């Protein structure tokens, strides 16, 4: 059964989710012009966009919150899978349905009717990232490939939890190093295998590249649980070094080649470990409620920024203004609209849906979402 004593909330993780979702949005609509902008803008558009963070965070929080007993039997596994389904799928289906309607009404498709149907079905099934032809076709909710990858991680998590729960610190450190090495090597290998056949924009949607990120998060969480509380100075040092490594894309800023997942993945590991240590302090820092709320709205921002961007672009062009891709002013207006809309959708759509699907005679306080939970 699920542990009755919930672990302490981890400071700053939830706001980071918002920053990363915001970075994904900026990359999709501002990344096209970022090469002509100063370094700070390029960090905002590209340096923050690290899918490694989302997958590593998922592994970290799942392993941090749950014990191996919570997924040890078919009954508890099904309960766990149901909670994941409620957390992700209903809002995703709403966003996907709206995006498909917009696609059918306003976009000129060069796909055959069969390809549109197959691509749409794969999106509803969450399998489109495993079929390179349909990763971006039909062109709706392009970022949703990462949800497709995460579904696989949810499937394998119960077995990872039972496998590594009793490992000691040395074995966990070895697992951590192997996971980081795998992720570093998988990125260029996956790119070489997929780029020539499917195009340059497909390679990073391959789930095999991110398995190491997810396992890295699991290992960091278990190490956090095993480690006694450290000094505040040490915890803040881990946080600071991790933030520098994660948010600053050295390859983009200084035009040097680096394995695309190595630096941000190490930075993510430092951030998560430092945050976990901060949570163990006698008086851990508290995340402001507003930042927590913004962080919790990150999933809606992640899902809906694409359709919102398409609508804003249409409005801007019809009004004789420059598109989001070409104008910093249009991009700023779009970003403000997206954030406000996502906050409203979280409060009046996502929260009520989760409350309705989660309600039941067997619901307990342990079933409530973790404050710093993954998407």
Would you summarize the structure shown here?
The protein has 375 residues and is an all-alpha fold.
Helix content: 55-70%
* Biggest sheet architecture: none
Number of strands: 0
Approximate strand percentage: under 5%
Question: How far from one another are the termini?
Answer: 23 Å
Evaluate the radius of gyration: 20 Å
Going by helix content, strand content and strand pairing, the class is mainly alpha
Q: What is the overall number of helices?
A: 14
Query: Low-confidence runs (pLDDT<50, min 5 residues)?
Result: 1-5, 361-375
Q: What letter string, H or E per element, gives the SSE order?
A: HHHHHHHHHHHHHH
Tell me, rounded to a whole number, the average pLDDT: 76
What is the overall silhouette? globular
Describe this structure in words.
The chain is an all-alpha fold. Helices cover 67% and strands 0% of the residues. It is built from 14 helices and no strands. Helix 3 runs parallel beside helix 6 and helix 13 crosses helix 14. The N terminus and C terminus are likely disordered.
């Amino acid at each position: 059964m699920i542990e009755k004593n919930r672990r302490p909330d981890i400071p700053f993780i939830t706001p980071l989710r918002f920053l990363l979702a915001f970075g994904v949005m900026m990359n999709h609509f501002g990344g096209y012009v970022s090469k002509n902008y100063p370094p700070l803008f390029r960090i905002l558009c590209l340096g923050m966009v690290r899918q490694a963070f989302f997958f590593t965070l998922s592994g970290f929080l799942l392993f941090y919150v749950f014990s191996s007993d919570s997924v040890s039997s078919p009954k508890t596994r099904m309960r766990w899978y149901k909670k994941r389904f409620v957390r992700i799928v209903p809002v995703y289906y709403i966003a996907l349905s709206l995006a498909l309607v917009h696609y059918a009404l306003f976009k000129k498709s060069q796909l055959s009717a069969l390809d549109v149907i197959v691509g749409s079905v794969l999106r509803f099934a969450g399998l489109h990232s495993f079929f390179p032809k349909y990763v971006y076709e039909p062109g709706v909710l392009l970022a949703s490939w990462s949800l497709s990858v995460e579904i696989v991680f949810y499937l394998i998590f119960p077995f990872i939890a039972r496998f590594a729960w009793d490992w000691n610190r040395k074995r966990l450190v070895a697992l951590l190093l192997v996971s980081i090495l795998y992720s570093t090597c998988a990125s260029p290998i996956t790119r070489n295998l997929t780029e020539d056949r499917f195009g340059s924009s497909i390679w990073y949607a391959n789930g095999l590249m991110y398995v190491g990120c997810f396992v890295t998060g699991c290992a960091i969480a278990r190490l956090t649980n095993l480690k006694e509380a450290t000094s505040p100075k040490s915890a803040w040092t881990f946080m600071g070094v991790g933030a520098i490594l994660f948010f600053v894309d050295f390859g983009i800023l200084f035009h040097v080649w680096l394995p695309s997942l190595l630096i941000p993945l190490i930075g993510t590991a430092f951030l998560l470990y430092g945050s976990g240590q901060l949570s163990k302090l006698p008086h851990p820092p508290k995340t402001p409620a507003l930042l927590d709320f913004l962080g919790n709205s990150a999933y809606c921002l992640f899902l809906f920024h694409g359709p919102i961007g398409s609508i804003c672009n249409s409005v801007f062009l019809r009004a004789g203004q420059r598109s989001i891709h070409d104008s910093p002013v249009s991009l700023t207006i779009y970003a403000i609209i997206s954030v406000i809309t996502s906050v409203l959708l979280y409060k009046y759509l996502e929260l009520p849906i989760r409350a309705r699907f989660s309600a039941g005679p067997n619901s307990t306080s342990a079933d409530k979402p973790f404050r710093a939970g993954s998407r």
